[in-house]
Amino acid sequence: MSSRVKGQRKCPICGSATEERWRPFCSRRCADVDLARWMSGRYAIPGGDADADEDGDKVPPAPLPRDENAE
């Protein structure tokens, strides 16, 4: 008996029918291909504009507080 899921989505790598064990892929090979693409940077999650101070290198240091009692 095959463990392929009928009527379900196709493998995003090769287009074959998915297999429950490797879902959403059809095989370990396709799962590994997908993992390799993520690890190599081929896939990326889009992000919005980073805040200017997110990494701290674009914001000037805050001024030191003034001592009102100093002359």
Features:
mainly alpha
Describe the structure.
With 71 residues, the protein is mostly helical. The protein is 18% helix and 0% strand. It is rod-shaped. The relative contact order is 0.11. The model has no long low-confidence stretch (mean pLDDT 79).
Strand and helix layout:
Blueprint: H1 28-40
Give me the number of helical elements. Answer: 1
Distance between the termini: 89 Å
Let me know the average pLDDT: 79
Give the proportion of residues in helices: 10-25%
Proportion of residues in β-strands? under 5%
Report the major sheet.
none
The SSE order reads H
Bulk shape: rod-shaped
Task: Count the E strands.
Answer: 0
Which stretches are poorly predicted, pLDDT < 50 over at least 5 residues?
A: none
- Secondary structural class: mainly alpha
Radius of gyration: 26 Å
